[in-house]
Amino acid sequence: MGTGREAALAALTACRRLDAWSDGSLKAACRELDRREAALASRLAYGVLQNRALLDFYLDACCTQRFETLEPFIRDVLRLGAYQILFMDRVPDSAAVDESVELVKRKKRQRAAGMVNAVLRRLSREKNELPELPTGDRAGYLALRYSHPTWLVRRLMELLGDQEAEAFLRLDNEAVPTTIQRNPLRCTAEELTESLTACGAALTPHPWMPECWLLSGGGSLEAMPAFQKGWFQVQDAAAKAAVLASGVKPGDRVLDVCAAPGGKSFAAAMAMEDEGEIIACDIHRHKLALIEKGAERLGLACIRTELADGRQCREAWLEGFDEVLCDVPCSGLGIIRKKPDIRYKDPAQLAGLPKVQRSILENAGRYVKPGGVLLYATCTVLPEENGEVTAEFLSGHPEFHPEPFRLPGLDGENDGSLTLWPQRHGTDGFYICRMRRS
User: Fold this and answer.
1) What is the pTM of this model?
2) Catalytic member of 258, 281, 326, 379
């Protein structure tokens, strides 16, 4: 079956070699593990990704050669060991060292075993006297302290100021509670609470989003009877907020332009009491199958899927929908706390995203009925992917205007757009813009 440490190492290797996402890599690596070892693998892999720059800084101080010159595999092993020594109080340092050495030996790197042993033992001895982080440049300090790219730290400081930017970075490296939404078509709040509690889960009502709970414990969600019976779906409050902002209601005809994996289509169907029609689109056929499977589990009959590119016009859909949802491809910088490896993606790859976003929004606007709503959303916090995209669209389309909306539990109105922040709202970083067609 292997161990959690081996699975964590396999996931890190996949992220490095294949540019794979950590969540998918971990799921594959943990397939044969028991629950305890799988939990250890997740803690280790995510912990390393969340603190990689900081771990590298301390490991470099304990190496006789520059840490960055070591073989990538050895660097990953040392990071795993260092994370256990510096961040996991319940793991004895001796176990962290010994298991790291064993990882090297099992991978036929016996020559490196002595070096791994020496570096980690030194780190263990000196962990209470670690070198101080350089503080000459505030952005550089925060980038190293919270293991984020310096360019992103500087951008966040521009948007938020020093203290709030640090709060955002800190939350990116902390554990995120699982947020679930009740399916009102399948169960009552009392039934859901009773079922999940019986599985050993702890439930706390979401601070401001009705029908949502913060869930912890209880083991695998997919194994819970309540999940299998479609009583709830996993969804951050920010994603549900986007659906509520659109104003969908029973009997509406709704188009979800970039629907996979289906969460907003599901939330919309629940808000519509499964009455009306939702067309959920994606450019990949295999992702449509995931949406269909999720809709079947939740008992949502009003959803049907279509293979469609959001940038290409469908003549049959022109002016045919009461609400059009555009949760467009984006940098994902608002969900780093859930996908820590996003911070390591090449920023050059992000430069072309606004062009794609504008193209999808431009096309989606054609599908809105007169009097209907166009809802633009992203899980990023950068204005160039958010307000700048919608402002350009509105300037070229006088038939659309921003329309203020209210969200339950949040005070105050807005000008038709709202950015949700982890450090302010306890949600993913998320942008929502509601536009009404005259």
Assistant:
1) 0.94
2) 379
